[in-house]
């Protein structure tokens, strides 16, 4: 099996949008699911949400370079193959029919809401979207999402595009106008999902959040991705990744995400990318 | 000691010095030299009614392969082994021989005698054949059957079923969820007990029989059981007991608490002992507690010991041994671990604390700082026949630690089972099968830990072989009906 990178584009500083040839995954993937990717045989197993699928042939993932393994991934060009890609993993999103829905995406998490919005629209839901990012440079997929969603609001920290503020400001603004929703989704940095969940809780609104704890196998084998939801231990990889954010213990999740920060920077400082020909790298191309 | 006296005792194998070996992940046991293997083989009484064969879950012709060692005909000896066991280099290393073939050996009953070292002889022959017959490996396939069998999981059960069927001409495809093949042999058992090169060679022998292994295939997700049924004539499920059982006590979410599955997967599958050359790290503190008394607990404890000494981030020249304790709620005589592995752990300096059981994890800023254990005593025997551990009221002890590894067992992985609810489960949550290892769904067979709950490599292999025979029976009957 050769998981060739069919298309690659840089969509923001340190963020890449790639299509990987993986027909078996493309034909089985549903909104909300993820894949585990290994750039080469020494890489970590990195979980990435499936952002889109194409012609039952390829899957699309958008990722941010955060550690050695994602950096290796970024060094691969169109036509190169990644060593492994397994999925689709996790439970699909619970998509209602004909409801009023609110979908919030922050940073690289916007990639994860694309298929959710698409599937919601296919099932006849009304979709209001709030996109948030640091600045205009980091805002991804805005045009694609505007074309699908019924309504799209944009917030940036510096106000360089859309309104200045955070996605929770957008939520509050919508609620103040008296807008009612049957279900919501929020995918982005953990801290953003936590605060979106707090706002939703005040409104008694179901809010699905896609949790991203440290994971290894992604199939329920290691228990490393355990999270606490409604006071019970769940494995994000097989019981999730989407959980009702109102009941997630966010502080535990954020603490467990910090486990390997020291090693991550250690790994990046060690020069071990020498095996990859720098000329193959097309970083910066879009 | 005269020659006769010497014959009473088994010839020991070479082991690496316990103080040196705990610095690395290289194999601990070095096996026999040729002369030693021949001498050990000559001790065998060649019983006409061999008890050892009955003690072996796959009924290897043990006197037969040992006889060939005395004749120095290692090739034929290896062929005999492979008739019964496709993974002899692995079994020779990881089987609990003391409770199986060697435990049954008649010499146990003879005063002053020790049983034959069957496992070490098996290993000698398997390694000899691996080294000496490398590229010339003959593949013997008896006829071709135009029947396709799908095997789910590339662990010992799946590999054995696949090899048995492929050798008889069936078209076999193994679907493996992980990027490397071998199941528990690759993610569970550490390099110092089972070098991954040994595993790779055994798997490549099986591939030479025509078995195709598809990695990154999560059955139930990447391909469904329904799709497999459309494409294949029979299915064997050998997915093991793949979800960790955890204590679930207060503080379980703190950083520093691992399931043995996560800990060993990081080390074995992801090779974090070789971090940062491999990208996946494993963090182990200076004071470690392992909970449990089985082989997985021994593997975890000995790995934790080694990690402390092989990963130095800043100071490569300093020697910082980890302090590793094993706490077990029963006593030394109840531990399920192989005695050899327990001895290795003791030699390497691991401390054992009997009759203690964790009741609470104590943290500071989200990081584990201490473990509170309750003292236990042994009560009446339970269903397993072992004495039940009973907590002693008010008797607690606190250990300062930064890492805990819970090795208290596994339960079935629900991913596949939930995706195909037609498969009937029993009350332990494992798959229900009939005497032919067929599940409640016709044409779907199962064996190994997913049926029995966590057991041994060789028992899983035995089940794989039995299922393969049943599949042949089922498919030939099926062929009959169609005519």
Structure notes:
The complex is a heterodimer of chains A (286) and B (483). Chain A has 9 helices and 17 strands. By secondary structure, chain A is an alpha/beta fold. In chain A, strand 10, helix 4 and strand 11 form a beta-alpha-beta unit. Chain A starts with a strand and ends in a 17-residue tail after the last helix. The C terminus of chain A is likely disordered. With 483 residues, chain B is of the alpha/beta class. Chain B has 19 helices and 17 strands. In chain B, the strands form 5 sheets. Chain B has a 5-stranded parallel sheet with strand order 5-4-3-6-17, sandwiched between helices. In chain B, helix 10 links the parallel strand 3 and strand 4. In chain B, helix 5 packs antiparallel against helix 6, helix 7 runs antiparallel to helix 9 and helix 14 packs across helix 15. The longest helix of chain B has 26 residues. The N and C termini of chain B lie far apart (70 Å). The model of chain B has no long low-confidence stretch (mean pLDDT 90). At the A-B interface, helix 2, strand 8, helix 8 and helix 9 of A face strand 7 and helix 14 of B.
Number of DSSP strands of chain B?
17
Q: Per DSSP, what share of the residues of chain B sits in E-state strands of 2 or more residues? A: 15-25%
Radius of gyration of chain A: 18 Å
- Basic shape of chain B: globular
- Biggest sheet strand line-up of chain B: 5-4-3-6-17
Given helix and strand content, the structural type of chain B is alpha/beta
Q: How much helicity do the residues of chain A have?
A: 25-40%
Put simply, the count of helices of chain B is: 19
The unreliable regions of chain A are 271-286
How many beta-strand segments of chain A?
17
**Could you tell me the mean pLDDT of chain B?**
90
Largest sheet of chain A: 7 strands, mixed
Q: Main beta sheet of chain B, described?
A: 5 strands, parallel
General shape of chain A:
globular
Q: What order do the helices and strands of chain A follow?
A: EEHEEEEHEEEHEHEEHEHEEEHEHH
Structural class designation of chain A:
alpha/beta
- C-alpha end-to-end distance of chain B: 70 Å
- The portion of residues assigned to helices of chain B is 25-40%
Distance between the termini of chain A: 27 Å
The total of helices of chain A stands at 9
Oligomer: heterodimer
């Amino acid at each position: 099996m050769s998981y060739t990178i069919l298309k690659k584009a840089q969509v923001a500083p340190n963020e890449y949008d790639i299509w990987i040839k993986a027909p078996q995954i493309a034909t089985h993937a549903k909104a909300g699911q993820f894949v585990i990717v290994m750039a080469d045989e020494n890489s970590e197993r990195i979980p990435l949400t499936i952002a889109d699928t194409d012609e039952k042939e390829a899957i699309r993932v958008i990722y941010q370079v955060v550690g050695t393994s994602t950096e290796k991934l970024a060094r691969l060009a169109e036509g190169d193959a990644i060593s492994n890609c397994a999925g689709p993993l996790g439970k699909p999103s619970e998509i209602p029919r004909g409801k009023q829905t609110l979908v919030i995406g922050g940073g690289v998490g916007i990639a994860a809401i694309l298929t959710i919005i698409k599937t919601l629209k296919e099932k006849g839901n009304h979709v209001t979207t709030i996109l948030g990012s640091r600045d205009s440079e980091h805002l991804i997929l805005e045009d694609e999402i505007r074309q699908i969603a019924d309504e799209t609001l944009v917030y940036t920290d510096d106000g360089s595009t859309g309104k200045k503020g955070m996605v929770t400001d957008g939520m509050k603004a919508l609620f103040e106008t008296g807008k009612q929703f049957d279900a919501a989704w929020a995918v982005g940095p953990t801290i953003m999902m936590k605060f979106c969940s707090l706002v939703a809780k005040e409104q008694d609104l179901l809010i699905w959040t896609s949790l991203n704890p440290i994971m290894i196998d992604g199939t329920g084998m290691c228990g490393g991705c355990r999270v606490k939801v409604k006071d019970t231990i769940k494995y994000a990889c097989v019981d999730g990744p989407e959980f009702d954010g109102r009941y997630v213990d966010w502080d535990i999740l954020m603490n467990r995400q910090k486990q390997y920060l020291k090693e991550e920077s250690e790994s990046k400082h060690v020069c071990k990318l020498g095996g990859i020909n720098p000329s193959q790298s097309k970083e910066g191309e879009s | 000691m005269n020659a006769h006296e010497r014959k009473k005792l088994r010839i020991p194998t070479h082991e690496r010095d316990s103080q040196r070996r705990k610095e690395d992940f290289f194999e601990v046991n070095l096996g026999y030299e040729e002369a030693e293997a021949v001498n050990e083989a000559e001790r065998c009484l060649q019983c006409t009614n061999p008890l050892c064969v009955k003690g072996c879950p796959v009924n290897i012709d043990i006197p037969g392969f040992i006889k060939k060692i005395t004749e120095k005909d290692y090739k034929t000896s290896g062929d005999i082994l492979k008739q019964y066991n496709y993974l002899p280099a692995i079994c020779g290393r990881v089987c609990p021989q003391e409770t199986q073939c060697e435990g049954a050996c008649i010499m146990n009953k003879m005063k002053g005698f020790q049983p034959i070292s069957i496992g070490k002889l098996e290993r000698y022959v398997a390694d000899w054949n691996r080294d000496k017959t490398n590229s010339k490996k003959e593949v013997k396939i008896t006829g071709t059957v135009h029947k396709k069998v799908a095997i789910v999981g590339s662990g010992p059960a799946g590999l054995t079923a696949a090899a048995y069927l492929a050798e008889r001409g069936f078209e076999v495809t193994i679907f493996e969820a992980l990027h490397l093949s071998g199941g528990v042999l690759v993610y569970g058992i550490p390099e110092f007990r089972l070098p991954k090169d040994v595993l790779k060679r055994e798997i490549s022998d099986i591939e030479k029989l025509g078995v195709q292994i598809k990695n990154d295939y999560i059955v139930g997700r990447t391909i469904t059981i329904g799709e497999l049924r459309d494409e294949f004539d029979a299915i064997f499920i050998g997915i093991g007991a793949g979800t960790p059982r955890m204590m679930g006590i207060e503080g379980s979410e703190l950083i520093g608490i691992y399931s043995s599955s996560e800990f060993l997967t990081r080390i074995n599958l992801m090779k974090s002992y070789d971090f940062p050359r491999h990208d996946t790290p494993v963090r182990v503190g200076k004071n470690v507690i392992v909970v449990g008394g089985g082989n997985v607990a021994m593997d975890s404890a000995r790995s934790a010991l080694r990690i402390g000494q092989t990963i130095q981030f800043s100071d490569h020249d300093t020697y910082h041994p980890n302090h590793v304790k094993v706490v077990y709620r029963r006593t030394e005589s109840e531990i399920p671990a192989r005695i050899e592995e327990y001895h290795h752990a003791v030699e390497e300096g691991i401390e054992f604390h009997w009759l203690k059981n964790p009741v609470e994890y104590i943290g500071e800023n989200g990081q584990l700082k201490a473990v509170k254990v309750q003292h236990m005593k042994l009560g009446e025997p339970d269903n397993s026949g072992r004495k039940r551990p009973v907590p002693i009221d008010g008797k607690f002890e606190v250990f300062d630690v930064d890492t805990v590894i819970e090795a208290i067992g596994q339960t079935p992985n629900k991913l596949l089972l939930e995706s195909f609810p037609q498969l009937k489960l029993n009350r332990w949550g494992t798959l229900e099968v009939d005497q032919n290892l067929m599940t409640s769904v016709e044409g779907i067979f199962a064996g190994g830990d997913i049926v029995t709950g966590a057991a041994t490599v060789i028992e899983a292999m035995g089940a794989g072989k039995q299922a393969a025979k049943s599949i042949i029976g089922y498919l030939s009957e099926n062929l009959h009906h169609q005519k």
